[in-house]
Design goal:
- By secondary structure, the chain is α+β, with helices and mostly antiparallel strands.
- The chain is about 25% helix and about 30% strand.
- It contains seven helices and 22 strands.
- The chain has a six-stranded antiparallel β-sheet with strand order 2-17-21-20-19-18, with no helix packed on it. The protein has a six-stranded antiparallel β-barrel with strand order 3-12-15-14-13-16.
- Strand 18 and strand 19 form a beta hairpin.
- Helix 6 runs antiparallel to helix 7.
- The termini are far apart.
């Protein structure tokens, strides 16, 4: 019979379990083993990647060494109206811009001499001007406006003839002052009466054509009276000779003939003196403008000040656009071409027509205009621009004038605008492709290459012979010939980069 050994006093079964330090040591060994396993796996994976990158098959090596496929640049065939355009900048301004520079005539007429003085300003900047309005008074004399396209360049006096006289007559008639039986363009008695009536209506006395007119006329009248008396005396002498029974009346008859000749000459001189005498319209009192209402843009002096050069600046006539064409574009733009107008500042648009293109370049700023003219320092009231120069024109550019097809919106006045001039147009929609899509072969044939669904597939391409037309904006009109087909939407080869 086996006897179980009794446990020693003070000890329990727990004495058989591992101590806590032994457990921790065992767990640490297990963790270290796991770390080494993971590290080994990572190392093996990296080695595999490296081997895969460095070890390639012959096919892969050949594929990597092959050149990349050629890149293809294509564009679409379009059907549209093709236009060739010239784009320039312009400014909306009045048709005519005038600089009014009264000369010394007013001061001379007033007897003051020296430089003329502003004695009254009737129109301030921004004021509207109508026909017959007095703009300003200089040394007591008026400066007034009448309608006319020809600028004032001389005093208009009795006996004068010309187109400027005709303009004066029309202006007088428009204000209710008829010129009688005077022929158009002839300053006769009827025109003198009309001029006197106009000055009276303005509240002034007209200046005589010649301050000595009265004396000259009186002298001519006296000479005619003396000649008339001479004829009367000669007639009496001849009558007495005949009544006395004398047979020799030759001398008396000769005296009468001489007296009659003197009377004829004196009468002609008197008529000439009467025709030359009368009121005139001095050049420094008249301004011809193209249309009304005109507008005062600037006044450079105040009442009491000496009259400066360019006392007044006027603008008149319907608004137009003034621009400048570079020399290389001048021959592309012709009178009558259509123009699209755009104001970027306001978003307003309009249409117009090319009215004129200068045949000579505009002189650089400060240069004299060829043959005088604007900027040449005229002394008359209407001296200066007769057509309105655009000071913003580029030196050496060719002046371009565009007239509106309809009245411009008032907000465009003075605005800088963009002008697109249609220099050429296909009229109807045509097939167009980029210029670079058209190629010419050694045989002289012009072709385009139409691509298949896969642009890179060379075997799906076809060449189409075309006839090239007008070109604009990098596009060219094409028409298929020789039985080839080309349609809107086809893709054509523009360029192909070599590998």
């Amino acid at each position: 019979m086996k006897h179980q050994e009794a446990a020693a006093p003070g000890k329990s079964d727990a004495a058989d379990e591992p101590e806590p330090d032994d457990v921790r040591a065992s767990l640490g060994r297990r963790r270290r083993i796991l770390v080494w396993v993971v590290a080994g796996a990572v190392a093996l994976t990296g080695a595999g990647v490296v081997l895969a990158a460095t070890i390639r098959s012959p096919a892969q090596v050949a594929a990597d060494a092959a050149p990349p496929p050629a890149s293809v640049l294509a564009d679409r065939v379009e059907r549209r109206v093709l236009t060739s355009s010239v784009v320039v900048r312009g400014t909306v301004a009045a048709e005519q811009s005038l600089t009014v520079s009264p000369g010394a005539g007013a001061a001379a007429a007033a007897g003051t001499g020296g430089k003329p003085v502003v004695t009254r300003i009737n129109k301030q900047p921004g004021a509207a001007v109508q026909a017959g309005d007095v703009l300003v008074e200089v040394s007591g004399r008026p400066v007034f406006a009448l309608a006319g396209a020809l600028p004032v360049y001389r005093d208009l006096k009795p006996g004068a003839t010309g187109k400027d006289v005709g303009q004066l007559q029309e202006g007088l008639k428009s204000l209710g002052h008829p010129t009688g039986k005077d022929p158009a363009g002839t300053y006769g008695a009827g025109t003198k009466t009309a001029v006197a009536a106009l000055y009276a209506a303005l509240g002034y006395t007209p200046r005589p054509a010649d301050p000595a007119d009265a004396e000259k006329l009186q002298a001519a009248e006296d000479a005619a009276d003396i000649a008339q008396r001479g004829v009367t005396t000669a007639k009496s002498a001849l009558a007495k000779a005949k009544a006395g029974g004398g047979t020799d009346t030759t001398e008396a008859q000769q005296q009468l003939t001489f007296a009659q000749q003197d009377l004829a000459k004196s009468t002609a001189r008197l008529e000439a003196a009467r025709a030359a005498a009368g009121p005139m319209v001095p050049a420094d009192e008249l301004v011809f403008v193209k249309g009304f209402p005109a507008r005062v843009d600037a006044v450079k002096a105040a009442v009491g000040e000496a009259v400066p050069d360019g006392l007044l600046t006027l603008s008149a006539g319907a608004p137009v656009i003034r621009a400048s064409l570079p020399a290389h574009q001048k021959d592309l733009v012709k009178t009558g071409m259509k123009v699209q107008v755009l104001s970027e500042a306001t978003g307003l648009t309009a249409t117009g027509t090319v009215a004129s293109v200068a045949t000579a370049p505009t002189p650089a700023a400060g240069g004299a205009a060829p043959g005088g003219g604007p900027g040449s320092g005229g002394s008359g009231a209407g001296a200066g621009s007769g057509a309105g120069e655009n000071t913003a024109q580029d030196p050496g550019g060719y002046a371009l004038t565009v007239t509106p097809d309809q009245t411009f919106d008032a907000r465009l006045s003075g605005q800088g605008v963009r002008l697109t001039v249609t220099a050429a147009s296909s009229g109807d929609p045509v097939l167009v492709v980029p210029l670079s899509a058209v190629s010419a072969g050694a045989d002289g044939r012009t072709t385009v290459t139409v691509l298949g669904k896969d642009p890179g597939a060379a075997d799906a391409r076809r060449r189409v012979e075309v006839r090239a037309g007008m070109s604009a904006d990098g596009m060219v009109q094409v028409e298929p010939v020789g039985g080839g087909s080309l349609a809107d939407g086809d893709r054509v080869l523009v360029a192909q980069a070599k590998p």
